[in-house]
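Data card: per-record layout.
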Amino acid sequence: MERSGVSRRALGALALGGAAMGLSGCEGAHQTDLTPKSRQFPKDFVWGVATAAFQTEGAQAVDGRGPSVWDVFEKVPGHVKDGSDATVATDSYRRFQDDVDLIAGAGLGAYRFSISWSRVLPTGQGAVNPAGLDHYSKLVDALLAKGITPYATLFHWDLPQGLQGMGGWANRDTALRFADYARAVVEKLGDRLKNWIILNEAAVHAVFGHVLGEHAPGLKDINLLGKVVHHMNLGQGLAMQALRAGASGLNVGTTMALQPCRPAGGPLAIWNRLASDGLDALWNKAWLDPLFRGTYPKEMDDFLKGVVRDGDLKTVKQPIDFLGVNYYAPAYVRLDLNSPSKIAQANPPEGAELDAFGRHIDPSGLFEVLDRVRREYGAPRMLVTENGCSDPFGTGPAILKDDFRIVYLRRHLQAVLAAREAGCDVRGYFEWTLIDNFEWDLGYTSKFGLVAMDRATGVRTPKASYAWFKALAETGLLPAT
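The structure for this 481-residue chain is written out next.
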């Protein structure tokens, strides 16, 4: 896989054989949108923004925080596109009140953030670090004081390096330590923090971090895949049990990076359909099936030999109060007999509208994944926990008149309305993200924020999309244009 342009949002280009990204912006040839009958969201619909600890907090060596796998990964030359790191990021550990004020200023009722495991348990296990927990306690209190509902993600890819040194997610013991971590956090915050997301985009972390080596911990060993997938699913189940044992009145869910997996050449391309079905099993079903059905898809059998123990799948299949869905693009794949996985990336259809990553901008894909969950997995409550659009890649300043982002958000929100009208129980939408941040292996070359930040001065400047999203959150009425 080519290093340049690969990130967690390169979902549409995932291929265990290779991928290449383009550099266009979010605009392009118009594509027909889904048209809902009504453009009005219900009054209780949740409007929010989503962030992640490693991408925003900075303060990596402050108040007893231990290193994570991303602290190590980002320091290796060539791992981050612009050679940058997240030692400052958006300085949100220190400036969290400024973030809260921006969220309140946009009239948003919810904030999705993640908790840094290594702030709470610096080595991933052992004694709790009180200063780390105190930070999140202050953040929760600041949000509640402004009438903003906190949604906390327990794991957004930043595994403590101490646990990675013992095998990381390939080691079954990490699932047990994850439950200990959940227990420590809910004991401190469970009286006020009621909405919990267990894992963020586990498929991305498993594949990009352990097979492709493009993300931390930077491993390239397909033999780890079954262990990592199962232990993350097992850890999720154990963490859900720990949360519910630790506090009452919680809403517990998890977030998945769901995407349609489409064969190059269309559904009649039989050989490529084999590849797209294989990717679907790994990317979507290996996480949905265990959670909702207590089984794995048969395509995972070879990877999971000797990994799953008696009783594990009962633990994995926990009731959830909501499913978080992250969506950016569909994947196009083809059969490649020269690839170890037999799966390779294919280009989007000719003339398709592309984003900054070279992925197909296709709001119908969001409808597709939401409706699939409704049809195949018992119609659970859902939240769109991430969706958004980057500026064209570059090291220059952000685009403040970001009309392309407004168009992108509007069209995807039309798909959400259409999904609701089709019977999908979608209760909220979190835009990615609040402030232009450290975008993993892309560093600061990719900008998703509603707010720009001058990295030299720290000055935050709302973009046009910030005002647009504010107006939407206040009325719930999606503009037609």
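Known properties of this structure: The chain has one domain: 10-475. The two ends are 38 Å apart (CA to CA).

See the next section for split statistics.
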